[in-house]
Amino acid sequence: MSIRWPVTKAASKLEHHPQAVLAPQSEEHGRKLTVRDTLKTLTLVGCILSVAVAATAQEVVHALTGTVRSIDPASKTITIFTDNGSEGLFKDLMDPKLKIDFDKKLRTDANTADTFKDKGTYAIVYYFGDGNVRTAVALRKLGSGPFMSNLGRVVKLEGPLLFIKDKSGLVESFKITSDTVAETEIGVVDGLKFQPRKDDQVRVVATMVNGVPTALFVRTM
User: Fold this and answer.
1) What is the b/e burial string over 114-148, where b = at least 16 CB atoms within 10 angstroms of the residue's CB?
2) What is the spatial distance between Cα 148 and Cα 196, in angstroms, rounded to a whole number?
3) Strand (E) or helix (H) holding 50
4) What 8-state DSSP symbol labels residue 159?
5) Residue 188: CB partners within 8 Å, gap ≥ 6?
6) Which CATH architecture has domain 148-220?
7) Backbone phi, then psi, for 15, in 5-degree steps?
8) What pLDDT was estimated at residue 132?
9) Distance (Å, rounded) from C-alpha 127 to C-alpha 65?
C-alpha cells in the first residue's frame, strides 16, 4: 500500500515552477556579477592608459634670448637677463634620462646647461617649465653681434624671406635659415620648420650676414 503525503500549495508551485522562487535571486546575483566585472574591466583599462600616458609624456622645450648674467656651479643654476627686461633663474637639467621634446638639430648646435661657461654672452636658452624657476636644457651662444631686435606682424613668408610690418607701417624682411631658431605655440623648432600665419605678431632677433639681415631667433608672441 502506498502512502500519499499531503502536498501544500507552496510546495506544489515549487515542484512545478522552481524558477518562480529561484529566478529573482539568480537575476540579482547576475546583475551584481556584471557590475563587478564591468568595474574590474574599467579599472584595468584605466591602469593601462595611465601607464601608457606616463610612458609617452614628454616635457616640451621652449626658447628665449637674453644675456647670461651669472653661472653658479654650486647651486647648478644660471641667471639670464632676458630680452623682455626681466631676470630669470634657470636650474640645470639634472636627469639626463628625462623625456623631452627637443629638436635634434637644435640640440646638436647647443651646449648642455651644465657645460655652458660663457658668462656675459648673448645666447638662446632652451628650457621647459614655467614660474620663477625653470629648467635649462641647453644654451646656444649667438656670437658678438651686433644684433637687431624687431617687433611686428607677419606680412608673408616668401621662400627664405620673412616679411614683417612694424607699428609705423614699415615692412622689413629677414632671411630664415636652418640656423634660425623659432619659438612657437607648440615649442621650439628650427627655422625651416617655421610656418607663421599672416598677421601673427613676432619678435625677430637678427644680425647681418653677407649684407643680408638674417634671423637668428624668431618668437611668436
Assistant:
1) bebeeeeebbbbbbbeeeeebbbbbbbebeeeebe
2) 20
3) helix 19-56
4) T
5) 61, 62, 63, 102, 103, 106, 126, 181, 182
6) Beta Barrel (2.40)
7) -65, -40
8) 82
9) 11
pLDDT along the chain (221 residues), means of 10: 47 46 53 58 48 59 97 96 94 90 94 95 96 93 94 97 97 97 95 96 97 97 90
What was the pLDDT predicted at 8?
A: 47
Partners of 219 in the β-ladder: 183, 203
CB 219 within 8 A of CB 202: yes
Residue 84: φ, ψ to 5°: -85, 5
Instruction: Specify the DSSP class assigned to residue 41.
Output: H
Q: Could you tell me the residue ranges of all domains in the chain?
A: 11-49, 59-141, 148-220
Which residue type sits at 88?
A: G
Give me the helix-helix angle, 9-16 and 19-56, nearest 10°: 50
pLDDT at 39: 54
Best CA proximity match to 216, nearest among 116, 135, 106, 138: 106
What residue type is assigned to position 173 of the chain? S
Which fold is adopted by the domain 59-141? OB fold (Dihydrolipoamide Acetyltransferase, E2P) (2.40.50)
> How high is the pLDDT of residue 97?
85
- Residue 101 half-sphere exposure toward CB, CA atoms < 13 A: 12
Instruction: State the CB neighbour count (10 A cutoff) for residue 197.
Output: 8
